[in-house]
């Protein structure tokens, strides 16, 4: 029997997520904060606050996990956080003489705040729907949450990226159950604030190959452990 969708919880989640986003990017509320890393985190905190509020208000059984299928959180932290942070910061150091490791982890934490909402809460709440329907709903709500709704060519491209990202990150979440894992994948594009060039695209390709390979191999081992022959 499929679980019923709690539309009230989803509405509460989304209202809080959008309200926080609006306050962060459309008002001067954060203008007095001098710490740029804190500003980054506050711009993405809405989905996490919305999810936690909805779960509390409606007493939902909505399991979330940093470690997912892994034995402990150290494994996804090392593979999906430490590896990209060190790799990308190292490339930055070689090319421009700076190693923004703190920025890397701030971006990862920003991704985690979003993913608590989009995957940890909303994907879980919509999992009884057909896969394409769930992806479409999450993609549209995620796109609108960014509060950049003009129908320009660049925004339509962004909507396509959001849709593809919803599918891809959703697959990672379904395979790992780990918020650390999806936060790492989510943050790939956000790492490169000055745009994507050949070096950045190469790094993204390398990380995706490593992550996909790791997911496939670990899932085989996990399924064998759970269902031994």
UniProtKB/TrEMBL annotation:
Keywords: Hydrolase, Membrane, Protease, Transmembrane, Transmembrane helix. It comes from the Bacteria. Residues 100-192 form the CAAX prenyl protease 2/Lysostaphin resistance protein A-like domain. GO terms for biological process: proteolysis. One of its GO terms (molecular function) is peptidase activity. InterPro entries: MmRce1-like, Rce1/LyrA-like_dom. Pfam families: Rce1-like (PF02517). The chain crosses the membrane at residues 7-25, 37-61, 73-95, 129-145, 157-180, 201-218. This is CAAX protease self-immunity. It comes from Flavobacterium anhuiense.
């Amino acid at each position: 029997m499929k679980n019923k969708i709690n539309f009230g919880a989803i509405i509460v989640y989304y209202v809080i997520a959008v309200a926080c986003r609006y306050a962060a990017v459309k008002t001067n509320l954060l203008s007095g904060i001098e710490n740029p890393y804190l500003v980054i985190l506050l711009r993405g905190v809405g989905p996490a606050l919305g999810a936690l509020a909805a779960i509390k208000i409606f007493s939902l059984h909505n399991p979330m996990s940093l470690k997912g299928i892994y034995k402990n959180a150290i494994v996804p932290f090392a593979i999906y956080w430490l590896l990209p942070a060190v790799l990308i910061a190292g490339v930055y150091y070689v090319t421009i003489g700076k190693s923004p490791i703190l920025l890397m982890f701030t971006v990862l934490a920003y991704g985690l705040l979003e993913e608590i909402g989009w995957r940890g809460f909303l994907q879980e709440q919509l999992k009884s729907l057909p896969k394409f329907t769930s992806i479409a709903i999450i993609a549209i709500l995620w796109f609108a949450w960014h509060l950049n709704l003009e129908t320009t060519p660049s925004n339509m491209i962004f909507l396509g990226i959001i849709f593809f990202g919803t599918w891809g990150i959703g697959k990672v979440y379904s395979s790992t159950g780990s918020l650390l894992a999806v936060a790492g994948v989510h943050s790939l594009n956000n790492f490169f604030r000055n745009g994507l060039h050949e070096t950045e695209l190469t790094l993204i390709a390398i990380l995706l190959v490593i992550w996909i390979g790791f997911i496939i191999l670990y899932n085989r081992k996990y399924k064998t452990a759970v269902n031994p022959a």
